[in-house]
Structures are given as structure tokens and as C-alpha cells.
Design a protein that fits this description.
Layout (H helix, E strand, L loop, with lengths): L1 H11 L12 H13 L5 E6 L5 H13 L6 E2 L18 E2 L18 H7 L6 E5 L6 H11 L7 E6 L6 H12 L5 E7 L7 H4 L3 E5 L4 H14 L16 H8 L3 H12 L8 H12 L3 H14 L2 H18 L8 H4 L1 H4 L4 H17 L6 H13 L1
Parallel strand pairs: 1-6, 1-7, 4-5, 5-6
Antiparallel strand pairs: 2-3
The structure holds zinc ion.
Zinc ion binds next to helix 4.
Length: 381
């Protein structure tokens, strides 16, 4: 049943162990090695582009600390007692103490009760807080008072979009970051680490997550499509979504975005492919054709936010720059090999710089339409 596959796709392919996380091998190996040695800090920052696996990894850290395979407690052999019967605590032998010394395994098992509860977000010891909607001092005070209560599991607090916290909220959080209550780990996840106060950063271990590269994404989607037999679910072979690379380009470095494109494709929903429009926009900019550029912009804006348009343009100028050195990128199919080898690198660099400038200007005014229009005019000059 197609509808069934739609609901399970994102859940089914959610990483269950660190080894399932794609495109972050360096960061994951640093992290797992720290877990193995028991040297991972109690205050962490996971930063990187959206969809790169920050929150998923934070959940796996929580799973590691709570998994019965990573930190087993040996059942004592007492005559007359069965497994699971109440025994005196003194008879149990913990192997490793989470966050203090070596675990038996680094990878969470993914199967025990704790692992499963953490994966679906219902574990009592793991708190996920969206900092975007809990920005104030009161929210942090509330969190701090909750953390005073002792629970049986290892507490992990995951603060998503941490850069959204107010300055006062951050200041209020400082002491907790410096010295969390015993058994508590705090993980700040953010796409914009430069917005975190220096006093916060200096109290945390920082882990950077890269944008997942195209080839890795494409290979991942290809694997899913094969495993899920997606083509035979009625997608036309010539459809945009029969090509893992197209999905990877559209996903823009985010594993999750590509998965949701696949889900939409499965449910028969149309996901607009606007690569051709970007190709025409870059062409119009290159030819200093302001009217055409603004026309295309108006169309693009119907489907995408101004910021996304500029970020996608940045990517196109980046790809075009690589093409001028003869490297094959996703834009080759649009421009053709002879055109790409004639690209003017100097102009591409200038255009890229202008895009970065436009992106910065979005924060200066709430009117993103004007910023984008003026920015495109500048690019055409
Ligand atoms: Zn487990």
C-alpha cells in the first residue's frame, strides 16, 4: 500500500545508531570516541545547516546514556530470585557510569525500551525544547527547576534552535551549562552558532555538522528507493523523482528535505522542480536582463521564501565557479559543457559575494521582498 509507505518512510529511515548518520563521519567519530572514553562534556553545542542530523545525533547521545546494552547492570545471581525480581541495590554491579567512565558499547542497541522511547520522543529523562517558542528567562528557570528533581535515567536536554534564546535567557542558563546537575547533559542545537554568546560557547564542547554533500545524499536516496521499491509503486520512470541526484539537489544538503520529497512522490503529490527557472534566472543576471530576472523572481517567490531563493542562487554561482575549472556539477546539464568552460570566474565570484550581502540584509528589515528585488537589480548591474 502506497499510503502505508508514506507514513513510515521518515520514521523507518531515521538513524537508530551513530553508524546510520550519513555525511558526518568526522564529527560522529569524534563524538563516539569521546563517549567511549567517557570524556564527552555535559554541555554541548551541535551546530550546522538544517537537516544535517544535529537533533537526531543528540537523541542518539541520549539513547547511548540510557541504553541497557551500553550501560548494563549485571543481574545478581541469588537463589530463589528470577530476572527482574526486586533485589537489594548493593548486589547489582553497574558496568560503567554514563558520562563518567567507559560504556560496554558505544552504539545504542536501538531495540531496548529506552532506545525505542527516545526514538519516538516519549522518554521521561529526555527533554526536547524548541527554543524558538521558549525564548525567555522564565522558560529557562522552569527548566532549571525541573532538573532539580532526580529521575532514574540519565537526563538529556535538547534545546533546538538554541540561538533563538534571549540574551537574558542565555545568561540565566550559564550556571547550568557550567555545572549541570549530576547526570544531566545539555545539548544546544543551532543553525546559527554565531548568534550564541561567547560566554555560552566557552562553556560547551562544540561539534560541527556539515551540509551533506550531493553524492552522499544521492546514494542514500538511491538506496531507499531500491529498498522501498519506489519505482514499482507507480512512479513514472521519467519522473523527476526517479533520479536520486535530482532529489539530492532539491534537498539542498538536508537529509530530511529529500525524504519528504520522496514521501510526496510516493503519495502522488507534485513537487515543483524549479531548477529550470534558476537556470534562466542565472542566465538573465549574466545577460543583465533586469526585466526577465524580475519576472522569473516573481514566479519563484510563489513557491519559495526569499532567503531560499538567494541561498539557491549562491549554490548555482558556486557550481558555475567549479564548472569554470572543468569540474562536473549539477548545472552542467543546463548550460552544456562548452558554455560552462567559458564562465567568467571573476563575475561569478562577484555575484556570489553580492548574494551573501543580500542574505545579510534580510536581517536588517522585515521586508524581504524589497531586499530581494534590490539585490537582484544589483546582481544584474
Ligand atoms: Zn538500547
Amino acid at each position: 500500500m502506497i499510503s502505508n509507505s508514506v507514513t513510515v518512510l521518515a520514521t523507518k529511515w531515521r538513524p537508530k545508531i551513530f553508524g546510520d548518520i550519513i555525511g558526518q563521519s568526522h564529527t560522529i567519530s569524534q563524538l563516539t570516541s569521546a563517549l567511549d572514553k567517557g570524556t564527552l562534556g555535559h554541555a554541548l553545542i551541535f551546530c550546522g545547516t538544517r537537516g544535517s542530523g544535529k537533533t537526531t545525533t543528540a537523541r542518539l547521545v541520549a539513547a547511548h546514556y540510557n541504553c541497557e546494552v551500553c550501560y548494563p547492570v549485571e543481574e545478581p545471581k541469588v537463589e530463589g530470585y528470577g530476572k527482574g525480581d526486586a533485589v537489594f541495590p548493593i548486589l547489582t554491579t553497574p558496568i560503567g557510569v554514563p558520562g563518567l567512565n567507559s560504556p560496554k558499547e558505544v552504539e545504542p542497541c536501538g531495540k531496548c525500551k529506552d532506545c525505542k522511547m527516545i526514538r519516538v520522543g516519549v522518554h521521561p529523562s529526555v527533554m526536547e525544547i524548541d527554543a524558538a517558542s521558549n525564548t525567555g528567562v522564565d522558560n529557562i528557570r522552569e527548566l532549571q527547576s525541573v532538573l532539580q528533581y532526580v529521575t532514574s535515567g540519565q537526563r538529556v536536554v535538547i534545546l533546538d534552535e538554541a540561538h533563538m534564546l534571549s540574551k537574558n535567557a542565555f545568561n540565566c542558563l550559564l550556571k547550568t551549562l557550567e555545572e549541570p546537575p549530576p547526570g544531566v547533559t545539555i545539548i544546544l542545537c543551532t543553525t546559527e552558532p554565531h548568534k550564541l554568546l561567547d560566554t555560552v560557547k566557552s562553556r560547551c564542547q562544540i561539534y560541527e555538522f556539515q551540509e551533506v554533500d550531493l553524492r552522499t545524499l544521492a546514494t542514500f536516496y538511491e538506496h531507499i528507493m531500491k529498498s522501498e521499491n519506489i519505482k514499482s509503486n507507480g512512479l513514472p520512470t521519467e519522473s523527476l523523482f526517479s533520479d536520486p541526484m535530482s532529489i539530492a539537489i532539491k534537498a539542498n544538503g538536508s537529509v530530511r528535505d529529500g525524504l519528504s520529497i520522496l514521501q510526496k512522490a510516493l503519495s502522488g503529490e507534485q513537487e515543483a522542480d524549479n531548477s529550470k527557472q534558476y537556470f534562466e534566472l542565472v542566465g538573465a543576471i549574466y545577460n543583465q536582463d533586469v526585466i526577465t530576472a524580475l519576472d522569473i523572481l516573481q514566479e519563484l517567490r510563489k513557491a519559495e521564501e526569499s532567503r531560499v531563493v538567494i541561498q539557491t542562487l549562491e549554490k548555482w554561482f558556486y557550481w558555475c565557479s567549479l564548472e569554470s575549472f572543468g569540474m562536473k556539477t549539477p548545472v552542467r546539464d543546463y548550460f552544456g559543457e562548452s558554455a560552462t568552460s567559458n564562465f567568467d570566474l571573476g563575475r561569478l565570484q562577484e555575484s556570489f559575494k553580492t548574494c551573501l550581502e543580500i542574505e545579510r540584509n534580510f536581517t536588517a528589515t522585515p521586508n524581504s521582498k524589497i531586499v530581494l528585488d534590490m539585490g537582484i537589480l544589483k546582481l544584474c548591474m
